[in-house]
TrEMBL record:
Entry keyword annotation includes Ubl conjugation: no
Keyword annotations of the record: Membrane, Transmembrane, Transmembrane helix
Segments traversing the membrane: 101-121, 127-145, 152-171, 177-200, 220-244, 256-274, 286-307, 319-340, 352-374, 386-407, 427-445
Protein name: Permease prefix domain 1-containing protein
Organism classification: Bacteria, Bacillati, Actinomycetota, Actinomycetes, Mycobacteriales
């Protein structure tokens, strides 16, 4: 194994773990990393192997003993407990945890009140357009506080939210048109990348921090889904229990519980990911290994169904929409699998299965593009068709290059870092496309 690559991977894991703690700013982490590298170099010059030098250097980082202790607990299989585990400081950790919980609950309450106010004041369509603006700014605020971003980064985070509010509420959308719905769907996608900017503490150019955000997104979806299922069951049981007593509480659920539940779940799920990362990191590989083979079977079956269809023009419009959603699911599985994989391990059977998944998705995407182009040639352009065509072209580029890099990796001609780097550097393209759909597409079609 490449010693330098292994050392960089170890330093990257350490830095990522340290940076997730709100008490340490990005500038401090940079300074600490420089100090760590100097320590590693000195120890290596004294005759220690790189991995030994790294472990000893981390132990000497007295300024982050408590964080290193947590890192040691999470990486116990690599002798962290022996080399780094130090006496705990429960009082300080407890104070920080309580302070963060207070901040999270306060932001959740404010977001819920904003959501409630928006639902009361705005009409249905206007509320749908602005839905993401009622919650996501507070989620970005949580990460900005936790990462202790500079005032310049904080100001930069406010700009896209302000521009989105202007565009979504100033554009003269036709109430019966498609562009308003399209803008409402793509607004949270574009603004999620603003949340990502807050999550990485302004380090959006860092491939490693982008991968951290990908990992967070997958874990956040897991927690949000669990909270949604749990909340739905609890609400159902509560309504049923009160119903047997002849008490109607559905208005309370609709007017108060749902707004607070939705807004709260978005922010609390993010806090849970930050607070319980060692638990979710065990879930992530399991989810990808369970759903990847199932998705491969589904894609192959769909390709076979397409093959039996006489003409791509006759493909049902609803099927095309469902296929787009499936391709997005495949992209999520691919990104989640990459973020959960140890980059130091050689290719295995699951990596080959991932390659089959990407090849199958690429074949489906090509069929989808053929169907869309045929329908456009037959019936002309519409906003929905342009959005679908653009999204599939964006996915096509990603899938084609992913297949190329995947082949190189499983054949031993490329490192996993190339696969990871491609996904992290291509990620902003999705945000850029969502922004184009919101800002450029409606005027082109006269807001209809």
């Amino acid at each position: 194994m490449d010693t330098d690559a292994e050392l960089e991977s170890q330093i990257g894991q350490w830095r990522g773990y340290v940076q997730r703690h709100r008490a340490i700013s990005t500038a401090d982490v940079d300074e600490m990393e420089d100090h760590l590298r100097d320590q590693v170099s000195d120890l290596a010059a004294a005759g220690l192997a790189s991995d030994e030098a790294f472990l000893v250097a981390v132990k000497r980082m007295g300024n982050v003993d408590s964080i290193s202790r947590e890192f040691a607990r999470e990486h116990s299989d690599r002798l962290w407990k022996q080399l780094v585990l130090l006496p705990a400081d429960p009082d300080g950790a407890d104070i920080r945890s309580k302070r963060e919980l207070i901040v999270v609950l306060a932001l959740a309450v404010v977001a819920a009140l904003a959501l409630k106010l928006g639902f009361t004041v705005l009409e249905d369509l206007a509320f749908g357009r602005n839905l993401s603006l009622f919650v996501l700014p507070f989620l970005a605020g949580y990460f900005a506080w936790k990462r202790q971003v500079t005032p310049r980064v904080a100001a930069a985070l406010l700009v896209p939210f302000g521009l989105a509010a202007v565009v979504l509420n100033v554009f003269p959308f036709d109430p019966d048109g498609a562009t308003e719905i399209i803008a409402a769907i793509h607004a949270p996608i574009a603004l999620w990348f603003v949340v990502g900017l807050a999550y990485v503490g302004g380090e959006w150019r860092s491939d490693r921090r982008r991968m951290d955000f990908i990992r967070f997104t997958g874990e956040w979806v897991v927690y949000l889904t669990l909270l949604a299922f749990g909340g739905g069951v609890l609400i159902g049981l509560t309504v049923g229990a009160f119903g047997t007593l002849g008490v109607d509480i559905e208005w309370v659920i609709e007017d108060w519980v749902l707004p607070f539940g939705v807004a709260g779940a978005v922010i609390v799920a993010a806090w849970l990911v930050e607070a319980k990362q060692n638990v979710v990191e065990n879930i992530a590989p399991v989810l990808t290994r369970v759903f990847t083979p199932l998705t491969v079977v589904m894609l192959v079956a769909l390709l076979a169904a397409f093959a039996t269809n006489r003409s791509v023009i006759d493909v049902d419009r609803n099927l095309l929409i469902l296929m787009d959603l499936i391709l997005v699911l495949v992209l999520g599985l691919l990104l989640y699998a990459i973020s959960a994989r140890d980059p130091r391990l050689p290719p295995d059977t699951f990596d080959r299965l991932q390659l089959i998944l990407v090849i199958s998705a690429l074949a489906v995407d090509v069929v989808m593009l053929a169907a869309m182009l045929s329908r456009i040639a037959e019936f002309g352009f519409t906003p929905n068709k342009v959005v679908a065509l653009g999204m599939n072209l964006v996915l096509l580029v990603n899938l084609v290059w992913s297949v190329r890099l995947g082949f190189g990796f499983v054949r031993g001609r490329r490192g996993f870092a190339d696969v990871e780097r491609w996904q992290t550097r291509y990620l902003p393209v999705y945000g850029a496309w969502a922004t184009v759909v919101i800002v450029v597409l409606p005027p082109i079609f006269d807001f209809a």
